[in-house]
């Protein structure tokens, strides 16, 4: 069945692969599933047709046959459960991998996203420096803990899994912060993820969207 995902028509990240369609593309590349991409503008995202499949007016979504779904974490879990290669067969190992998928989006990602939201919404306020320092402290606490846990292993729990896609992609959002440089273990982990051929194909595909939109504007 053909898979269709949605992505920004014109991504604010200028093709740096930070928007959440990237993690979906990466997962689909890992399992070798071809997919179509429907590009949506910010305006179209808020229209009834898109809201019917993404009630919050965001990307990404995934449609496959009569299934339409949203939330990048749920989409990755769906892909990992339906196509082999992204979750271990052993029931306990599978449960642990799913645990790490949740950890990526509900423990690691919130302070990282807060950092960006604060920059947009409070960047010009007198308290911004103090606010940023507080957020960065929360981020460093999580990075310290993740780095300790990862230690000298390649991936979060045994073999590469959907959890590593989620976690690497979440961490990528810190790339321009300067914070990751303090964490050689995590920087190496990110680089291992980015070195995967599936990551490179996904990255090139989303970059091509940006290059095309730039050329036609
Ligand atoms: N919890 C949802 C999920 O995981 O799928 C969150 C989806 C989400 O935040 N989507 C964003 C969106 O559609 C795009 S990815 N925003 C438009 C809107 O809300 O109107 C977030 C994102 C956006 C931009 C950058 N960037 O420029 O670097 C990075 C990440």
In short:
The chain has a 4-stranded mixed sheet. The chain is of the alpha+beta class. It has 9 helices and 4 strands.
Descriptive keywords:
binds S-(P-nitrobenzyl)glutathione; four-stranded mixed sheet; 217 residues; Glutaredoxin; alpha+beta; 2 domains; Glutathione S-transferase Yfyf (Class Pi), Chain A, domain 2
Description of the structure:
The chain has 217 residues and is of the alpha+beta class. The protein has helices at 21-31, 42-45, 48-51, 72-82, 91-122, 128-150, 162-172, 184-194, 197-215; strands at residues 3-8, 35-40, 61-64, 67-70. It has two domains: 3-85 and 198-216, Glutaredoxin, CATH 3.40.30.10; 91-196, Glutathione S-transferase Yfyf (Class Pi), Chain A, domain 2, CATH 1.20.1050. Helix content is 58%, strand content 9%. It has a four-stranded mixed β-sheet. β3 and β4 form a beta hairpin. α1 (21-31) packs antiparallel against α7. The protein is globular and about 45 Å long. Bound molecules: S-(P-nitrobenzyl)glutathione. S-(P-nitrobenzyl)glutathione binds next to α2 and α4.
